[in-house]
Amino acid sequence: MSNSNSSAAMTANPLLAAAFSSELVSNARYYAVKTHEATNHKYDGKPYEVHLQMVYDVACKYVHLLPNNRIISEVLAACWVHDVIEDCRQTYNDVKNVLGERVADIAYALTNEKGKTRKERANDKYYEGIRSTPFADFVKICDRIANVKYSKESGSKMIEAYRKENNEFKKQLWSLPVQELFDELAECLQGCC
Length: 193
Prior knowledge:
mainly alpha; 13 helices
C-alpha cells in the first residue's frame, strides 16, 4: 500500500485515519525527535528525524499487515521511538511512562546487545527478543528497509553490510505475515527501491 493508497484507505475508514493521527503517534514523534536532539544524535550528519520518518513511512505503506487500529497506533508510535533506548540514554521505564507498555516493549526489543561488532550487537539473544515481542519484527524490518533505501540513495558503503547480513537477517525474522516486507527488502538490495 503506497502512501497515496494509505491516504485513500484512511478516507474510506475513519478508524484507520484515527490510528494514523492518534495522540499516541504524535507524542511518540515529539518524544523521539526531542530525545535524539538532546543527545545530538544524527543520521549521517542529518537530524535523526530523517531516519525515523523513513521508518514510519515504510510502516505506513505496510499498515495493512497489522491486525487492528489500536495495534496500528502502537506500532507506528514504536517506529518513532525504536532507537531511543539504544541511542538516547532513555530506559524502558522512560518509554513506558511516556507511551505505554507495548510501545516500550518494542523499543526495548529493538535495542542492540552490547558488542564490539555489528554481529555481536545483533546476536541470537537480540533476535530472540524481537521474535518474542509482538510486532517488533515488523518495526525492525521497516527499519532495515529504511536503512537500505537511504544507503542506496546516498551511496553509503553500508549497503554492502546489509547485503552480507541479509541471509541471516531473513533467517532470524522471516515469517509469512511479513513476507511483503521481505519482498521489498529483497528488491531494494538487488535493484532500485
